[in-house]
Design a protein that fits this description.
Blueprint (H helix, E strand, L loop, with lengths): L1 H6 L8 E6 L2 H14 L1 H4 L3 E7 L5 H4 L4 H5 L5 H19 L3 H18 L18 H7 L1 H6 L13 H5 L10 H10 L4 E7 L7 H10 L5 H6 L3 E4 L5 E8 L2 E6 L6 H4 L1 H13 L4
Parallel strand pairs: 1-2, 2-3, 3-6
Antiparallel strand pairs: 4-5, 5-6
Helix pairs in contact: 2-11, 6-7
Length: 280
Amino acid sequence: MIRFFQIYPELVDNPFYIAGESYAGHYIPGLAARLVQNRDVNKIKVAGIAIGNGLVAPQYQLVWDSFPYAAGLIDPIQRRTILSSENQAKDLMAAKNWKQANVYMDLPQEQLGDYAQGIDRHNYRNYVDGSISGLEVYLGNSSTRTALNLDPSVEYEKCSGKVGDSYTADIPQDYSINITYVLNTDPSIKVLIFNGADDIICSNGGQLAWVKSLEWVNITSFQAAPKGAWKLDNGTIAGTYKTYAQFTYAHVYKAGHLVPGDQPESAWKMLNNWFANQWN
């Protein structure tokens, strides 16, 4: 990133935002904290971060037993089995046995997949059909690879197991401390945490749990702040939000793990609301 701004110095004074989803709950907090820590040297003006359905603090987000149970996808016996696996994962996290903790993080997801057969854990209102998305077709085209100056022989893979295996010791770790650092270091840096309502993998309940645990100086005031509804331009309620100082939490209706994929209009409106600090 430093090299990027060396090549394009005319951009260095622009406000810099970092946004992403899912595993971005790990790499965005880490990247933002490092940029803020070294900003006297890198001169990058971090203005805000936005994380959607992020895996930020797994020890709080291991709630794959509660949401599916509330949604009627599993019965009490199945819930206890999943909960037992979650507790084993949490114990291993506490012992900092990260690789083994990752194994037990996978187990309750597998159990849920067996119990709620055919369910899409990224959006429980959907069912897996095995079809290939338009994006995968596009990125798999040789013409796309040529346009991006990639080796034409390289094949696109949606989720590379080889790459994923390199992160097994990182996945179970807590990155929320980096968000705390950014919030407490610079009150001008905006933070948006947003979550699709129908996601099981990174559910709303798990997100709110780690948010509540933040050792931010304003966390009590944020918790006490009123929750409001935000709407699309046609008046349709798209979700709820809560905001205090520079921190905002937005809940997106009828969306799962990938909010812009499920509700692109809502995602667009939400980001514009955030940039403008105007939700009503």
